[in-house]
User: Fold these one by one.
Assistant:
Number 1:
Amino acid sequence: MKQLLILLLCAFAYKGFAQSSADSSEVATTMNSFVDAFSNLKWDKFSAFFADDATAFFPPSARDPYRANNKQEILNIFRKVFDHAQQQNATNPHIVIEPLDLRIQLAGTTAIVTFTLKDPDLFGRRTIVLKKVDDRWLILHLHASGVALR
């Protein structure tokens, strides 16, 4: 009986690990797709990553210190970012986004993704909270901050 109990516990532990590994892989794929859509200014793909009830805090460069309280408010702010990037380089519009030190933490149907961004003047910090909805990971919260390097 004791051996059966140990065997069952191991099976459940393995199943939980396998699910976490699959979810972690799905979150990484989602983040790669999100960064690709953002970097290449693919508005329709980019905007589809946010849950309707998403919230966000933007970095100082956005000049909007308040919390965005839903998907539409978030997209209104990002629309300005996209428009600015397209005006800066009309022949090849894009934004350079290179996440560094990416970490994914899972808690059931919630994932917390953290990474940094580095440019000459600012050490960017990002936290993205995702929730799994109908086998799809959606951004529930985005927090962007930065520390001046000079």
Note: The longest helix spans residues 2-39.
Number 2:
Amino acid sequence: MERRELIQWLVATAGLRALDSLAPADLLALGREVHRRAPPRTPDTAHVTRTISVAAERILPGSTEANVSAFIEKMLADWYTPEERERLLTGLRDLDTRCQAIAHRDFVDCAESDQVVVLTTLDNDVSRADARNHWFAMLKYLTIYGWCTSEIGMRALRLYPLPMRYDGCAPV
């Protein structure tokens, strides 16, 4: 499977209901706007950011270069409900717990092979029925969405510069 096929499959299977109603142009505009804004900082942000960054890089190599972790933090702060945010943050803590059980280290401090094993196990455990509500499906979706709407991702997908014209505040 090639990267593009993987991205299409992940986006198709891990989409979120909240974004289903947006037109493709609106979804792209939302993603690009999120990339422009700086994420808010919280006391445990350093560990959360590192965990998100490493997990995203294991899910889709190149995510670090595309600054996907900042995109995810911004989406969590501005788009998701507090319950959804907490679900993802609880899941990130679960990554540490799983890694502690197999390697006696937090997720970010484990060997890459251990990180991949934990993420693969999670991916296999998420059933199709609850994929929309599972924190790992949310993380995968945000990783793909963040990468695809970054300049790096758009260049890789040959969507940059945008193949359309934008007329802001055009008369009706």
Note: Residues 3 and 9 are 10 Å apart (CA to CA).
Number 3:
Amino acid sequence: MFRYSIKISGIVQGIGYRYFVSNRAKKLDITGWVKNLDTGEVEINAEGTDDKLEIFVHVIKTNHPWAQIKNVEIIKFEIQERLSDNFVVTV
């Protein structure tokens, strides 16, 4: 089990990107949260299996119709258990 701490920059706010991320996470059985940052970036904390998290990262980088991703920073952590049992959009 892994936790990915992800920060995405580019055009990712004001286009429904957080809800897109949440929807894709739920489809892949990934738990955690997504939120907008004051810097214009989006921060994601995602937990799940490494293979599903890799698919998740690919999807959120390439599949949103209006997002223009400039940079994706990922820090991976191996974890023993999930901190959450769902995926939420936070403020």
Note: The radius of gyration is 12 Å.
